């Protein structure tokens, strides 16, 4: 058997393959330069153009561009009027920002467990967490797979709750023919470089409801009802701050990059799906490695490709597999530490182990493999070779 790189053997790759990365081409660079040379670096025409293009791409009625995915989540909580008396249900298996946005508004995130096959929010668990104070559900499209919006919508209608899709992983996916961005009352996206497309930092909210979009437009601009360009056009200096907002604006040159990236997004999502198919095929014969389940009717956005390790078939834990794959030049990662286990939430809410056992068990077993559109077939082959090499070595 070939010696593992971690034991001094020859690594599969000489350079580290990251788990994700941006893809910037000459047309992106030209679009940014053109905007840098224009009159408007921020609050200019590119913002509206990007919002229109993003709305068109997702099929949503309204898009509001903001400075990050986290700002998008905060704006969603604001738009729904979440405040100190309110609870919002959040899955345990997500990035901390999905819960932090509730706290920004003074509300309380209530963690619900996920389904073991998909690691998506479990509608049955959601129902057990509903109280008189519950106002909304944040459904995280983990890894890029849309949640069970049929079941969640039925619950939301029964209890009169709003649904926010944290779709930061799922841009380009769909569920039963409806695209991500149209599946919930408010849908939030991140345009960070590791996500399915980028504007550097950036975010967006899509919604079918014009009044929610309008509230978010005011919120991203300090709570002021007109922006700089509107006042210039009106020849006026007067403005009114009607509520406490933030500066969550996205610049024009970031929007120019976003518009340019959107042109390539369909091809990129297709490439992510093709890479996932290669992995699924390759790992079918590797019994200690199981890709997450994909539900019927889902087109997966594949921001992440996550596998579960069957630790009963291995003589080491996940961290040993992680280190061995890194030594082979494969930039694996772990998404995520369940949010309720972070020290901040343990201290603030008294959460801890046992609260969401499915997420906690999954956390011991999951590993994210590299997936991004610029990966070559040889890169994909390297990942498959390294996983096979390492997992075979440690199989009991
Ligand atoms: C990336 C991400 C965010 C935060 O987005 P930023 O643009 O980094 O602020 C929120 N939720 C999920 C699920 C994410 O993956």
Give the CA-based shape: globular
- Strand line-up in the sheet with most strands: 1-9-8-5-4-2-3
Q: How much β-strand is present in the residues?
A: 5-15%
The third-level CATH topology of the largest domain is Aspartate Aminotransferase, domain 2
In DSSP terms, counting alpha (H) and pi (I) runs of 4 or more, how many helices? 14
Structural class: alpha/beta
> Architecture of the largest domain in CATH?
3-Layer(aba) Sandwich
Q: What is the averaged pLDDT score?
A: 97
C-alpha end-to-end distance: 15 Å
Question: Key features?
Answer:
single chain, 7-stranded mixed sheet, 396 residues, Aspartate Aminotransferase, domain 1, alpha/beta, binds pyridoxal-5'-phosphate, 3-stranded antiparallel sheet
Description:
With 396 residues, the chain is of the alpha/beta class. It folds into two domains: 5-21 and 265-394, Aspartate Aminotransferase, domain 1 (Alpha-Beta Complex); 26-262, 3-Layer(aba) Sandwich (Aspartate Aminotransferase, domain 2), CATH 3.40.640.10. The protein has 14 helices and 13 strands. It has helices at residues 26-36, 45-58, 69-79, 97-104, 123-129, 149-159, 210-219, 228-234, 252-262, 265-283, 318-327, 343-349, 357-365, 377-394; strands at residues 62-66, 87-91, 108-112, 134-140, 162-166, 174-175, 178-179, 186-190, 203-207, 289-291, 298-299, 305-309, 366-369. The strands form three sheets. Strands 1-9-8-5-4-2-3 form a seven-stranded mixed sheet, sandwiched between helices. A three-stranded antiparallel sheet has the order 7-6-11, with no helix packed on it. The protein has a three-stranded antiparallel sheet with strand order 10-12-13. The protein is globular, with a radius of gyration of 22 Å. The two termini are 15 Å apart. The model has no long low-confidence stretch (mean pLDDT 97). Pyridoxal-5'-phosphate (PLP) is lined by residues 68-70, 94-95, 97-98, 140, 166, 168-169, 190, 192, 203.
